[in-house]
Specification:
It is built from 11 helices and 8 strands. It has helices at about 1-5, 15-50, 60-70, 85-100, 120-135, 155-170, 190-205, 230-235, 240-245, 250-260, 265-270, and strands at about 75-80, 105-110, 140-145, 175, 210-215, 220-225, 275, 280-290. Strand 7 (about 275) and strand 8 (about 280-290) form a beta hairpin.
Length: about 290
Amino acid sequence: MIAATLLNVNQPPAEVVFLIKRILVIAGIAIAALLLILLLVALVAFPLMRYLSRPQDLGKAKRNGVEMSRLKGRTVVSVVAHPDDAEWYAGGALALLKENGNRVVVVVGTSGEQGGNGIPELAKTREAEQRRAGEILGYDRIVFARNPDRGLKNDRHFRSQLLDVFRQEKPDVLITFDSAQPAIGYRHSDHLAAGAASLEVAEDFETVRRAYLFSSANPDVLLEIAPVVEEKDAARQAHESQNEPRQGAAGWLLRLLRHISPAGSRSGMRAGSANPYPEAGIEYGEPYRLLGLD
């Protein structure tokens, strides 16, 4: 009916203007309602996902975290999908392990060229940011595999890249994504590929004794990272291209969440994937699922 009215050449201009204004008002109300719904879903979903991914036995998880924090003289390889993954999910663990005298090597499956805000040569920018983050946390080595962003696969090519690193480093410990029991809510295909490929290589590599899997639906390790949370935050902030406000409605929604949600504030975001577990006496707990590979 509206389209037919607009196409009517005999329609008075004033009525056409009125109809256009009415359409714009209705569209604006619809967009505002959609954003409000998304906001409410986010406010409910984020805490719910975190709750559902909590360790079942906090006492055991805390003890496993203490054991993890005491590892010394090992070679640790962390395999991630994108620049900033290591800092977000495991920055606290990697910082603590480095402080304990372990060798820390990070393998980045892709250079994250699809994850920016129109920044030219984003892959180079993100690799430079990853190097700065690595300097902050003390990584001994960073390997850029440079596979396609949003196209990382658990295939022969990627596994051969990982096998080369494993042969060079002879790691004792693997830290990566939990591809078998991924956390509820966010299951990025690149993350799953990084976890699956690295674990497949590690299972057949004789020096790897254990794997700590982050972004897990069933964690049984809580690592207290309060002593290094400032370093983790600084390393995360080194990824400036990912900290820039996004444009449009998505950016507005994210900024609003940061203002009204404690988890989205600077103090809440600085620990990345870590959360407080006051009932276990943990200020910032990075969760992992421990997998023995003996």
